[in-house]
Automatic annotation (TrEMBL):
A GO cellular component annotation in the UniProt record: U6 snRNP
Basic and acidic residues bias locations: 518-531, 582-598, 963-981, 1056-1070
Protein's recorded name: U4/U6 snRNA-associated-splicing factor PRP24
InterPro entries: HAT (IPR003107), Nucleotide-bd_a/b_plait_sf (IPR012677), Prp24_RRM1 (IPR034397), Prp24_RRM2 (IPR034398), RBD_domain_sf (IPR035979), RRM_dom (IPR000504), RRM_occluded (IPR031766), TPR-like_helical_dom_sf (IPR011990)
């Protein structure tokens, strides 16, 4: 019978056993089962509680005064087995196993100390008081959730049993417990969030909070301060996770295994201050892990490796391998787990046989075992996938066997036969990497055996040269494969090899082969590009046909997690990021008029293990022969750095992989492709910033960067590109797709792939939706539909508010006919305006009202609800209540800017000008605006390029003259240079000097100067001469103080009003 797995199953198993235990022998077997249970789940408080309670009941049942129904003989034997000391020692052992479970260890402690105090009440002794005092002291130095209650219990205990030592004991405990309280205070926010998630009953939320807690705790363990306590608490947290909601989570088990393995390595290297007896045994942990996650090949592989490191016998290691192959869940996730386990097993056989002290028997066992493993995997794959199974893409087992035959058996022909067999499988034959590995092996063999055999192949001798002809033949065979994924790379290495090693005749033949092959490859690439274009056209045509077949195609509002419409949208529609992406994904400065789409996701590589002093210039020099570099995203740590390098073309990125394993300074760096490492993330809360997103995704792997789009062309875009360091992390993060956030948003997470970008669909995008203005307010939808039926088929009519309607026609042509026929025509008693509907999301400015229902006046969006200034109660002139902020990155939306400005005080309106890199913030009075200006000046934000920049407080004139951040986030100016703008030449009117002012005499009977074209006050205020009519481009612009002095200094009152109105209009033009 298989052993139970998990604390609940163990408790149920033992509970069933103890209910049937009617004699002493059966009860002893129950105790043995409990021992097995705590061995399998050593950190389970549920198992320990059940064990200790049962043992305590046996102690009571075997007493003479017990009425449990035991026979006298059983009671006598039981008193010898189930003694009081054994029972109390078991309670203590259980407590020591779970004491660092901060949230629930009090359950076992409270029960244990209550039994101890009950025994003391029966017989009060000085030794008993000292024992319990000692227990309390130890408990209060351990951080736990109920520390205050434990302290109160200790206080009551001293008051009753040791009053004279009360003050000294409490003073000593308070002093010694400071560290425990501090350690718990650091973890209290995580404990609180975890507790709330548990109470909500949301298992997914519990998992997220626990994973976040574990990640934080692991980082604390890496620090030097409180290393011992942090390690104990970390083990306690893993005990909670692996006996609870994460008991079957692969990532959590691997994190735990890595933590313990690293601790053992630190102990061996004398780098750890942790006692060796505190670090769990690796074999015990791995034995538990394979029971909980038997489908995990990496865990089985580590189990075999740990057994080899612990010097277990061959029979013991083989027993682990058989346990893995006998598990019905090993191939639950495909052949990955099977291959991982067999790779570890074959690696063990190879290392055992290649040991210089290995016996002939070990060598024979390895030879047979490696061949058998290959056959087993082949049969396993065919049993699961049939004849379609082509083996391990990385041919790991074959590599191990090739190494064994080459180095140990010196069977070169046998090893070459394996390479040849692999080349017959399309999975490997189509991979340039396979052929390069075969070529490298041939060159290693050639070099190693040159002296002894002159050549490992039939040698071609001329002019005294020995050449690796079989290595050359690898390339000729590879180039015969018409479906090779990267023939360009093979051609490149082929010609270099022939130049270095081959004779002139072979080199000439290589040139001929390369020339002919290159022509075929060019035709193949053209054919592939043509097929891709045709497929894209067919897909677009199918999408249009599908849209046309839909009888009623209305715009859909953004839905929240519960399926209801999110509030706050006038037309009940919020443009999705995918729509914004299709229309405005790339700023003009980035496209530069080119038809070629920029494809970051397929043109980038990761450069790892860089030295900390690496710079972008050095990286460009490192790749100078491999194509143009668009951008380098360099992240530096204390002792190393990682760079994400974007090339202009995907071929350049693939060629750059050749630099993998090459020296960079004093380090050997790693170059890996960054394909499928980037996620397209959208529909998160509007105020979510980079920190929010990092916390949301960090449990799935290391995040390299988060790139937000520019909002210059569209202020309503809300999506980002999140890049992980590893592809597996990005795939794991796809689990968050559909996650509910804040009760209103349903997160969207997809692998970013520009080639499969979904373009906007719907009536508005197909130019079938008409925007109709000035219809009679009493008109109903059916009446509007009947009126527009003259132009064609009407799909739907929507009247969001009286006077305005949106009419969806059947086709684009019918919509154009409707504009031609009905625009400016009479509808009832009103002339109506008919035009194509434009997405409201295409906003270059965003206005948000805070603390009031309206927007608060000028600068608001036309037609937005509550856009009148009367809706905000404010004191003083508007200009005195406004603060103009400069230096806001174009990737920040109004919600994030609003949160950033909260420390500066409450404001009533925020107008964000993304194209100018700033905002105008209106406060309730001038005093609040002045205080806010002082706080805002000097605030630091992260720019679109990733650097830190400070906010500045300026004037409206400075804001509208500013062009904002000219650098597009994540781009290189040299990749897509922005064309120079031609300077605008002044007009003839601007070049003409202003005419002389005319002094008109005052007209009798009037008390003020005459207002006219020649009035000096108005001419000076407007900067326009009486006859020129030109722009005042030459004159110096007036400030508000200048206008006020002109107005108060006897100038024309009407002119002042006109100019004040014009100034406000200019200020809100953007």
């Amino acid at each position: 019978m298989a052993s139970p797995v998990g604390e609940d199953n163990w408790v149920d198993f033992v509970d069933h056993q103890l209910r049937e235990a009617t004699d002493l022998e059966a009860r002893v077997r129950v105790i043995e089962s409990f021992n097995d249970a705590v061995s399998a789940e050593p950190g389970s408080i549920k198992v320990w509680m059940a064990y200790c309670e049962y043992f305590w009941s046996l102690y009571n049942d075997c007493q003479p005064v017990s009425d449990a129904g035991w026979s006298p003989d059983e009671q006598e034997v039981g008193r010898a087995i189930f003694t009081l000391d054994a029972a109390l020692n078991l309670w203590q052992k259980g407590y020591e196993a779970v004491q660092y479970r901060l949230s629930d260890s009090n359950e076992l402690w409270d029960r244990w100390i209550s039994l101890e105090m009950e025994l003391l009440r029966r017989t009060v002794t000085e030794a008993g008081v000292r024992r319990i005092t000692h227990l309390f002291r130890n408990r209060l130095t351990v951080p736990h959730a109920t520390w205050d209650r434990t302290s109160q219990m200790f206080s009551s205990f001293l008051s009753e049993y040791n009053r004279q030592a009360y003050e000294s004991e409490m003073e000593q405990v308070t002093r010694s417990a400071k560290n425990a309280k501090r350690l718990y205070a650091l973890r209290d926010p995580f404990e609180t969030k975890l507790s709330l998630a548990v109470k909500s009953g949301d298992a997914a939320a519990v998992r997220v909070e626990m994973l976040e807690y574990i990640d934080w705790e692991i980082k604390q363990h890496k620090g030097k301060r409180d290393a011992l306590d942090n390690f104990k608490i970390c083990l306690g947290l893993f005990s909670r996770a692996l006996t609870g909601v994460l008991a079957s989570d692969d990532t959590t088990w691997l994190n735990f295994i890595t933590l313990v393995s690293t601790s053992h390595s630190d102990l061996k290297a004398n780098r750890s201050r942790i006692s060796a007896n505190l670090v769990p045994n690796m074999l015990d942990i791995l034995r538990r892990a394979v029971h909980h996650i038997p489908w995990s090949g990496p865990v089985w592989a580590r189990y075999i490796l740990a057994a080899e490191e612990a010097a277990l016998t061959f029979a013991d290691v083989e027993r682990i391998k058989h346990a893995a192959t006998n598990s019905p869940q090993l191939d639950r996730d495909g052949m990955t787990g099977v291959l991982d386990m067999y790779s570890a097993w074959c690696g063990y056989l190879k290392r055992t046989a290649m040991n210089p002290k290995a016996s002939e028997e070990a060598v024979d066992v390895a030879e047979v075992g490696l061949s058998s493993a290959l056959e087993d995997v082949k049969h396993w794959g065919q049993r699961k996938y049939g004849e379609n199974y082509q083996g391990d893409p990385d041919y790991r087992l074959e590599k191990i066997l090739i190494q064994f035959l080459t180095e140990k058996k010196e069977d070169i022909e046998g090893a070459r036969a394996i390479w040849d067999e692999l080349s017959q499988i399309p999975l490997h034959a189509n991979s340039y990497d396979f052929w390069l590995n075969w070529y490298l092996w041939e060159m290693v063999v050639f070099t190693a055996h040159r002296a002894k055999l002159r050549s490992p192949t039939p040698n071609t001798q001329a002019q005294g040269l020995v050449v690796p002809s079989l290595a050359t033949r690898v390339f000729t065979r590879a180039l015969k494969v018409r479906t090779l994924d990267w023939p360009e790379r093979i051609l490149q290495v082929y010609i270099k090899h022939c130049n270095d090693y081959e004779l002139a005749e072979t080199l000439r033949e290589a040139h001929d082969t390369i020339y002919k092959t290159r022509k075929g490859v060019e035709k193949r690439r053209e054919r592939e590009a043509r097929q891709a274009a045709e497929a894209a056209q067919q897909q677009a045509a199918a999408a249009q046909q599908h849209a046309a077949s839909v009888e009623k195609n209305e715009d859909v509002p953004m839905m929240d997690a519960s399926g209801s419409t999110s509030p706050g949208s006038k037309r009940k529609r919020e443009p999705t990021p995918a729509e914004d992406d299709a229309a405005n994904k790339r700023p003009r400065s980035e496209t530069n008029g080119e038809d070629v789409k920029r494809d970051r996701e397929h043109n980038t590589v990761f450069l790892c293990n860089l030295p900390a002093d690496a710079t972008q210039t050095k990286i460009k020099q490192f790749f100078r022969d491999y194509g143009h570099i668009n951008n380098i995203d360099l992240k530096k740590a204390s002792d190393d750095a990682v760079a994400l390098v974007e090339f202009r073309h995907s071929d350049d990125a693939r060629a750059a992989l050749i630099r993998d394993g090459k020296p960079f300074g004093e380090r050997i760096i790693q170059v890996t492709p960054a394909i499928d490492c980037t996620l397209f993330v959208t529909n998160y809360p509007p105020d979510a910033d980079e920190e929010y997103l990092r916390n949301l995704f960090k449990s799935h792997g290391e995040i390299h960067s988060i790139r937000f789009p520019s909002l210059k062309e569209n202020a309503k875009r809300r999506f980002c590109y999140l890049t992980f360091r590893e592809r597996a992390s990005a795939e794991a993060a796809l689990k968050l797709d559909g996650k509910a956030l804040g009760g209103r948003y349903k997160l969207v997470v997809k692998i970013s792939d520009p080639a499969h970008k979904q373009h906007r669909q719907g009536a508005q995008e197909e130019e079938r939706e008409l925007h109709v203005v000035n219809i009679p307010r009493s008109m109903k939808e059916d009446e509007v539909g009947g009126h527009f039926g003259k132009a064609g088929r009407v799909v739907s009519v929507r009247i969001p508010h009286p006077g305005t309607a949106f009419v969806v026609m059947g086709t684009r042509e019918e919509a154009q006919e409707g504009i031609k026929m009905l625009d400016k025509a009479m509808f009832g008693q009103n002339p109506i305006k008919v035009e194509l509907s434009v997405p409201r999301g295409m906003k270059k400015k965003s206005v948000t009202a805070w603390g009031a229902e309206g927007d608060g006046g000028g600068g608001g969006e036309a037609g937005s609800p509550g856009s009148t200034a009367e809706s905000i109660v404010s004191d003083g002139p508007a200009k005195d209540r406004k603060v103009v902020i400069l230096g806001i990155p174009d990737t920040m939306n109004e919600a994030r800017v609003g949160n950033l400005l909260k420390p500066a005080g409450e404001f009533v309106k925020l107008t964000l000008h993304t194209r100018h890199g700033g905002a105008i913030v209106e406060y309730r009075d001038a005093a609040a605006a002045g205080k806010a200006g002082l706080v805002i000046a000097g605030m630091e934000v992260e720019s679109s390029s990733g650097d830190s920049q400070k906010l500045r407080v300026g004037t409206t004139e400075e804001l509208f003259q500013s062009k904002g951040d000219k650098k597009v986030a994540g781009s290189d100016p040299s990749a897509h240079p922005e064309p120079e703008k031609k300077k605008k030449l002044p007009t003839a009117a601007q070049l003409m000097p202003p005419p002389p002012s005319i002094n008109r005499p005052q007209v009798l009977g009037r008390g003020r100067p005459k207002v006219g074209m020649g009035a000096p006050g108005l001419a000076r205020m407007n900067g326009v001469g009486s006859a020129g009519g030109g722009s005042a481009g030459d004159g110096q612009k007036k400030s508000n103080a200048d206008f006020r002095s002109l107005f108060l200094g006897g100038g024309n009152n009407e002119a002042g009003k006109v100019e004040e109105k014009k100034t406000e209009e200019n200020g809100s033009k953007e």
